[in-house]
Structures are given as C-alpha cells and as structure tokens.
C-alpha cells in the first residue's frame, strides 16, 4: 500500500464505496477546483464517478484510488492512479486533489514523490496525466516536478466549459 512520509502528517488508504460520502464532501470543499475545470461546482454524483471512472481497456483492479487522511482521521485529499494505461508500465495519474486548507504546505510534492516511488515499485516506468489548459498553477506544479508536455487534445466540453486538456508525461528513474 502507498506509504506517505511521516513528516507529511497524512496517511493513505484505498477508498471504497463506503467512503463515497466523505469523498463527495471533499469534492464539495474543492469547489474552486471544480469551477476552474468544469465551470461549476461538483455535482452530487461526483464521488461515485471518481471511484469508478476508468480509461478504456482498464478495470477496477487496475485503479488505485487513495484517500489522504489527517491524523483525526479526516479525508483531506485524493489520489487516483491507473496502472498499465496504454502499455505495461505506463501509469495514468487521474487526480491529485487537496482541500484548500491543506494546500501550499508542500504536501502535494510529498504525496507525488511517494506515489511515484510506490508506482515504480509496482513496475511503472512512466506516468502520464492530463492538465486543463486553464489550470495554470496545476501546470506549474507538474512541470516543477519533471512533467513535460507530450500533446494537447482538441477542445472538449467538460461541465459547462469548453476545455483543452494538455497531456504531460514523466519518466520515472
């Protein structure tokens, strides 16, 4: 299972259907992210969608959807990884979401590095992700950590917005 550095003060465990309400509360708390990406707050089915959404050809056994918990424990973030997305060893990072109150404290970097190390131990050699063009701070975060643009996708409707997703890729050493 994914182990986070002790200094982060967080633990991680795979989320299950029983965690849907807590995940929905996290999505609601992250309204700023949802409005930026989708043009509207998360809908009432967002958590269920996140728990089951998969790239083509993948199954739920390929999906590692982790909840990130404070010591209380309280869900304060989520991380979505899918193994062998396009080819063996190429993983897809679908989401790294932190509630506003824990952002800006270096947690994202620590979580990302732990996730990359864990994925590497599971056989990953590369991670891909898609970043919405309007998510400039997210893009800066990914690029600061070695992710580079691979290709843009054509504009698509996401919620009420027309969005261009840019695929970023990072080779794991």
From TrEMBL:
Keyword Chloroplast set for record: no
Stored InterPro entries: Acyl_CoA_acyltransferase (IPR016181), Bact_Acetyltransf (IPR050832), GNAT_dom (IPR000182)
Alphabetical keyword list: Acyltransferase, Transferase
Keyword S-adenosyl-L-methionine tagged: no
Domain N-acetyltransferase: 10-173
Top-level taxon: Bacteria
CDD domains: NAT_SF
Pfam families in the cross-refs: Acetyltransf_1 (PF00583)
PANTHER family tied to this protein: AMINOALKYLPHOSPHONATE N-ACETYLTRANSFERASE-RELATED, AMINOALKYLPHOSPHONATE N-ACETYLTRANSFERASE-RELATED-RELATED
Protein name from the UniProt record: GNAT family N-acetyltransferase
Phylogenetic lineage: Bacteria, Pseudomonadati, Myxococcota, Myxococcia, Myxococcales
């Amino acid at each position: 299972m994914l182990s986070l550095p002790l200094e982060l003060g967080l633990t991680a465990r795979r989320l299950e259907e029983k965690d849907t309400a807590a995940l929905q509360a996290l999505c609601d708390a992250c309204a700023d992210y949802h409005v930026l990406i989708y043009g509207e707050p998360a809908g009432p089915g967002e958590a269920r969608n996140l728990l089951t959404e998969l790239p083509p050809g993948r199954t739920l056994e390929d999906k590692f959807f982790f909840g990130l918990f404070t010591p209380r424990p309280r869900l304060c973030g989520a991380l979505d990884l899918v193994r062998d997305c396009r080819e063996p060893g190429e993983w897809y990072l679908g989401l790294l979401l932190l509630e506003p109150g824990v952002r800006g404290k270096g947690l994202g970097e620590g979580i990302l590095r732990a996730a990359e190390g864990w994925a590497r131990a599971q056989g990953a050699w590369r991670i891909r992700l898609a970043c919405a063009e309007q998510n400039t701070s997210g893009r800066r975060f990914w690029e600061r950590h070695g992710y580079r643009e691979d290709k843009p996708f054509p504009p698509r409707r996401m919620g009420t917005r027309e969005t261009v997703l840019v695929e970023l890729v990072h080779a794991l050493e």
